[in-house]
Each structure stands twice: as structure tokens, then as C-alpha cells.
Amino acid sequence: MGEAPPVLLNLHGSRAPRRGFTVRAVVLGLLLIPLNSYWVIQMELFRYSAHPTTVSLFFNAVFTLLVLQAFFSTLRHLLPRWAFSQAELLLIYSMVCIGSCMASHDFAQVLMPVLSWSFYAAGNPANKFAALINDHLPPWATVQDRRVYLPFYEGGSSLYRAEFILGWLPAVATWTGFALALVLVMVCLSALVRRQWLEHEHLACPLVRLPVEITRPRAMLWRDRLFWIGFAIAGGMDVWNSIAFWVPSMPKLPIYEYNLGRYIRARPWNAIGWLPRSLYPFVIGLGYLMPSDFLFSCWFFYWFWKMERVASAALGLDQIRDFPFDNFQCFGAYLLFALSALWIGRGYLREVGRAISGLPSRLRDREEPLTYRAAALGIVVGLLGLIWVWSALGMRLWVSLAFFGIYYLLAVAITRMRAQFGAPVHDLHFTGPDTILTQTAGTALFTQKELIVLGISWWFNRAYRSHPMPHALEGIKMQDRTAGQARGIVPALLLAALVGMLSAFWTMLALNYDLGAVAKGRIGLGGGFERAVTWIAGPEIRRSGPALAILVGFGQALFLEAMRFRYVNWPFHPLGFAISANWEMNLVWMPLMVAWIIKTMIIKYAGGKVYHRAVPLFLGLILGQFVVGSLVNIISIAYHVPSYMFWQ
């Protein structure tokens, strides 16, 4: 007789198999993804009322999970067999997160204009699209028929006409396959590093704490008075501001973004630029769960970068284009973080390599999400697919290898920082492989077709706020924690990526044919093409500034890491240095500082016991704002009215 499968208490308190991957869970997850895509795109693009995918913890996914948990709890007496286990609910949550990544502000929402904008805007000779771009774009990757794309931009039509659907089909199929290959490599990489990061190094993945607590059988969270106090504070603030949005005489609570930089006009201090103050309760809640040194470093280095800009202006160095190259310094720090993660796990990776090649290895992959050979095969197949598309578009092999090498090093760094510290943001705006290659090697090194492809890649390199790989690893972590193993999660996540991408295309097409992309194009419609025209029209040789800044950032992060190992109480963390110069940190630096002050005071004057006792209060801050913000947005979409934007 074999060993009995592990069990846990399901939502009803009965014993049930600890399974996450079940047909019913996958089917429900796939059914929810189109609705979720519609919701995300309405909020982020068409209504511009909230942006769930620009912060690490997606509030739309958390709200969906909460609704599912409440639904199945309500049915526990009527239909007990319909009860989903905690692992099943968390699998659905992970699928919704991946679907949200596909439909996000930094993925499909930017991709759609790439497919036809250069042809639509070619009538304006000033942009040089007709002369420099359009002849190099193949019909299988773009939409070139004016009868198809014109109603998309001008609106007043309907997607559901045969000529429109057939006109978009080749490009949709191409880029859906491309996106699926991107995610395939990420999921397989997550499967390969799972044991090293989650078991050997015991990385906690702090961002999984809230979804796990929500779905915990007989969760004590719902009975905790502090949780409901936090929920009431955060939710009450959003209710108040939502009413004040409609009643101008009612003052708003100042928790939203407000630019203090407008009051700083004297040079060199005006180099500080945009300086928003905010007090988002959910960010304070997230900050409370982070390690103190990382939390301190986030807001401290935010001001470090501001003062670096002031010093540059005082010395006249701001006349140098892009100086002080803070994004490139951050890239250097990200690079250190990726390489150090690989270096720490070098022994494990060596054993993985032996297992893949059939040599004797100390590792066994029976309980892994994928066998090591299957994961390696997935990585190879995914990369070959990506390189094939890039080659068909005109990219030389060495450029493709450099491009995707940089891209996946960034993916490893982002996933590692999320797994280790629960980084609240990680956007790295405009510092992907397209920018790194052109700014360090010089645009003159690349052919015209290659510069066009690098411009096109803007749709998934504009920013990395909704990067899918961290969500894949966190999904594996939650299955390990609740089901004892993560078998089956890989195909579930890949299906979620496929359905998520198709759902995003459907939503974008249907809404734009109705409302018009020009009227609703809140993201720069031609950003990628405009960059490509600039590169082609004015080729540059290699620039020393960006490359030197990468080395400086790498060195600074290396110094901070070395000091952490040398001095136990060293307060400056290299990861805080890496993420603090990015755009999104402008919105969260102040609530993170408030969280650090609160956490420091509690630990110093009340002790660790009180700190842990207060955790439900801060989980309540997160969930209170997420629930009210979600409900307000759903109501505004249903009734076609504007709403208060609780998160920028």
C-alpha cells in the first residue's frame, strides 16, 4: 500500500486532499480571467481610475480571492462537496495574477498600438514613420489594412465584423505566441530555482502572507479586533474620499498624491523635481511587513537620488544629457542582485546541471513543479521561439542573445527581491534591454531593422511593474505551503497566460472599436516608434556615461552588500538603493517612511511580541483599502460614472 496523501482542513473544517491543481480550480480560474482583464483595462486605461498592476500586490486579484473565499464559505452548509481547498483558491489567485500581468499597464495595453499605430499616423510626414518604419514591418506582425485599423482609432464601430477579426488575427496570434514564450521561460526558471530559494535559503515571499491569511481554514484573522480596526480606518478613508469626489464642498482626506515640488523654485533645489507626498494606508500596511533595514533604505535612498540631482544642478552637470544617469545606476544594482543570487546558488545549480545531463546528482525532482529536464527543455523551447520571432523581424543572433540575456537577468533580480523582501514596487522605467543596448553600445552599431525591433519591444520593456515571473514563484510558494507540493501549477499558469493574453486583446479591441484608441490612448500610442525614428535618424556612437553609471551602480550596491555582511547593524540595504530611483517610488516613499517610524517605535519601546500582535492591524489597512477601492471601481464601471482614484 502507498502512503496516504497529505490532508488539510478545507473551508468547512472537514478533511480534504491537499490539492491545488484540480480541473475545477483551473476551469474557474480561466473563466475569471476574461472578466478580470476587462476590469483591469477599464480601470487602468479607459477610465484611469486606479492602477492595480503598478504595485507588487494586485488589489484586483486580492479582491477576487476574497469574494471566492466568502462565496464558498457561504455555501458550506448547502453544498459541502463544492468546497474548494485553500490550495485550490490560491491556485486561482495565482492564475488571476498572471492574467492581470498580461492585461496590464506595462504589457498588452502598450502592445495594441504597436500593431498599427505607425500606419495610422503615417499621414503626418513629420513623424517619418512612412519613410523609416513601415516598409520594414511584416504583415504577419502588424495590421496594415486601413479599413481595419481606422475604426479602431476613431471608434464608433464594433469589433464583431468578420473583416475586423480576420484583419487582426495574424498579429494577435503572433504576439500571443511571443508572450506565451516569454512566460514559459519565466515559469521554468521559477521551477528551477524553487528549491534553492524557498527551501535552502528560506526566502519568505512576504507578499503571499495576505492571500494565505485570507484563505486559511477557520482563519483567526476575521476574529481579530485589530484587523477590523485597520480595515475600518483604511476603508473609511476611501469611503470618505469617494463621497467627497462627488460633493465638492466636502474636504478630501490628504492620502492621495500631491506634488510638493511645485513650491521649490530656486535653483539648484528645483532639480528635486516631482516630489509627491501621499499616505496610502495599504502601502503603510505593506511596509510594516518588510524588514526594517530594507524599509529604511527605500525612503532614505529616495532622498539620496534627489540630493544627487540637486548636487548635479549645483555643479552644472545637469547640462549633460541624462545626468546623473540614475536609471542606469539602478540597473547596475539590479545586475548585482541577479548575479549574486546565481552565485549564492552556484552549488545547487551545478547539481541541477548534473541532473539534467544525466550525471549522478544529490538532487531529486519528484516533488518539483517540473522535472529539471522538463524545465530546461521549456527554457530552451521558449528562448528558441523568442529568438525566431526576433530573427524573422530582422534581428541578428548576437543582438537577440544580448537582449534576452539582459531581460531575464532583470527577471531573476526582480523575482529575487520580491521573494526575499516583498519589494512593493520594481518598475525600472525605460531601462530595459532596448535602452541598455542602444545607450551603451550606441545606435550606430545596429541595423535599421534592429532599431525598429528594439523600438517595438517597448511594449514589454517600458517598465517592469507587472512582471509575471515573481507571481509564478509566489504561486509555487503558496502551493508548497498549502498543498505540500506544486505539481500541476506550471500548466495552470501557462493556460492563464494564454487566456489572459487573448482576453486582453479582446478587451482592447472591443472597447477601442467602440470608444476609439485616440480618445482613450492615455499611454503614448507611438512611444516605441518615436524612439526608433530618433535612433535611425540620428545614429550615435557608444556613450560612456550610461556604461560608467552601470559600473558605478554595481559598485555602490556591492559596497552596501559588503558592509551589511561586515556590520550587523548596518542600516543601508542595496536593494533599497536599487529600487528607490524608479518612478513608482515617488508615490510610496512617504507611506514607507511612516511605516518605518511606526515599526521602529513599536519594536524599540514595546518589543517583538507587540510588533507581531499588531500585524493584523496592518493587514486590515491593506485589505480595507483594497476592498473599498475595488467596490468603488466596479460600481463606477457598472454605472458609467467617474470615480475617486485611490491608487495612482
Tell me the layout of helices and strands.
Elements: E1 7-9, E2 15-17, H1 23-46, H2 59-74, H3 86-102, H4 108-114, H5 117-120, H6 129-132, H7 146-154, H8 162-200, H9 209-215, H10 225-246, E3 258-259, E4 276-277, H11 281-288, H12 292-314, H13 326-344, H14 346-357, H15 372-392, H16 397-421, H17 433-441, H18 448-456, H19 458-461, H20 468-483, H21 489-515, H22 517-520, H23 527-537, H24 544-566, H25 574-579, H26 585-605, H27 608-613, H28 615-639
Antiparallel strand pairs: 1-2, 3-4
Helix pairs in contact: 1-3, 1-21, 2-3, 2-9, 2-28, 3-20, 3-21, 7-21, 8-15, 8-16, 8-20, 8-21, 10-28, 11-26, 11-28, 12-26, 13-16, 13-24, 15-16, 16-20, 18-23
